[in-house]
Amino acid sequence: MNRTPQQRCRGRRCLVRRVVFILRCRSSTGRVQPLRYGVHTLGGDDMGDEPKNPDDWSENFGETNMDAYEDELVVPLFGPWAERLLDIVEVTTGQAVIDVACGPGTVARLEAVRVGNAGDVVACDFSAEMLAIARSKPPVDGALIEYRLCPADALDARTDGFDLLTCQQGYQFFPDRPAALVEMRRVLHPGGEVAIAVWAEFEEMGPWPALAKAIAITFGVDVADAFRSGPWGLSDGDVIAGEVRAAGFDEVSVRREVVPIELDDVAHLVRTLGAAPIWSEITALTKGEFEQFLDEVDAASATWQDSHGAIHGETISNIITAAN
Ligand SMILES: C[S@@+](CC[C@H](N)C(=O)[O-])C[C@H]1O[C@@H](n2cnc3c(N)ncnc32)[C@H](O)[C@@H]1O
Q1: Whose CA is nearest to atom 10 of ligand 1?
Q2: Three-state secondary structure call for residue 319
Q3: How far apart are CA 86 and CA 114, in angstroms?
Q4: How far is the CA of 251 from the centre of ligand 1 (A)?
Q5: What pLDDT band is residue 20 in, cutting at 50, 70 and 90?
Q6: Taking the domains of the chain in order of start, what are their residue ranges?
Q7: Other CB atoms within 10 A of residue 2 CB
Q8: What does the H/E/C string look like for 137-199?
Q9: CA of 302 to the centre of ligand 1 (A)
């Protein structure tokens, strides 16, 4: 939605207030020191000393800034998607369910409620940091969740043990997807169901292409391409369906689902990058560079902003289901 000059001005003031907040935390050299931006500590110990490889998303999942993932992405994005996923697979009371690449427990916690006390939920991830966040959450009213630290291609889970296996936005990161699928088949009962959710085409996904445009202007096209390629690097649902079929699953189907998203403002859109490899580059910007970056994001995402500066968009995911 287009905003009037007055409305844009209000948005600018809000951004400027945030930047002023950041400035108070800057060193005399003008480079970013450990600082607070919104609810997150940026720079310094949180980010590690070495810049991360922008192509290596897996490495990033081990960083302590996974708190950003929880605060900025789970509530507006992954939580609603978990609800959608479980509505599609129809989890029922008493089932045994395993969630692979569980992250902070987004899907597993809903599964635990839906299967109830008589059910059984195991949740696996190869990131100790993600599991620490998951374990720190209060228990849900339902099954106890057993969290296990393991990679998707070597699941720490019993053979023939589960009615349902879910994997939300993790499959695209697996280094050996065929091996992960072998493991998924091993842990499912014969006839058990698998449901894998992976983002569809990046360019159709609301404000994120706008964010990528601003990243390209500030950090260069290569960095923007690396940003796109991680979570959105396996956008063809039929390719995933082919892999699932090749692993021996039956009744493979692909559906394309859309879930709307609302972010508080431009600053929130930027904070969604807190769990991305590019975050270390953002926190290395000088004050002027950072202000310029916010300007670029504001301009690029203008069509997604309402009159209060909130950002509205759509997220699209392929959901592949199949029977073991
Ligand atoms: C985008 S997050 C999704 C987390 C969770 N499913 C959710 O919906 O919030 C991706 C997750 O995949 C995990 N992951 C990536 N590669 C993995 C692998 N090879 N084995 C296990 N987990 C992996 C990461 O640690 C991270 O928690």
Answers
A1: 170
A2: strand
A3: 9
A4: 25
A5: very low
A6: 5-323
A7: 9
A8: CCCCCCCCEEEEECCCCCCCCCCCCEEEEEEECCHHHCCCHHHHHHHHHHHEEEEEEEEEEEE
A9: 31
pLDDT at 66: 60
Q: Is the CB of 240 under 6 A from ligand 1?
A: no
The two beta strands, 120-125 and 96-100, are parallel
Which residue reads 């844009």 in tokens? 8
Q: Which atom of ligand 1 is nearest to the CA of 231?
A: 1
Ligand 1 pocket member 273 (CB < 6 A)? no
Residue from 65, 86, 111, 125 whose mutation best tests the ligand 1 pocket (most atoms within 8 A of CB): 125
User: Is 41 touching ligand 1 by the criterion CB < 6 Å?
Assistant: no
- Evaluate: CB of 106 within 6 angstroms of ligand 1: yes
DSSP string, 217-255: HHH-HHHHHHHHHTTTTT--HHHHHHHHHHTT-EEEEEE
Predicted TM-score (pTM) of the model is 0.82
The tokens describing 51, both together, are 């810049």
Region 5-323: CATH code: 3.40.50.150
Read off the pLDDT of residues 25-82 as tens digits, 9 standing for 90 and up: 322 233 332 222 222 333 333 333 343 444 454 554 445 456 667 778 888 899 999 9
Task: Tell me if 105 CB under 6 Å of ligand 1.
Answer: no
Residue 170 Cα to ligand 1 middle (Å):
4
Cβ–ligand 1 distance for 78 under 6 Å, the answer: yes
CA distances to 23, 25, 37, 237, 296 from 28, in Å: 10, 10, 18, 50, 25
Which atom of ligand 1 approaches the CA of 61 most closely?
25
Other C-beta atoms within 10 Å of 208: how many?
A: 24
For residue range 86-108, list pLDDT tens digits in order: 999 989 999 999 999 999 999 99
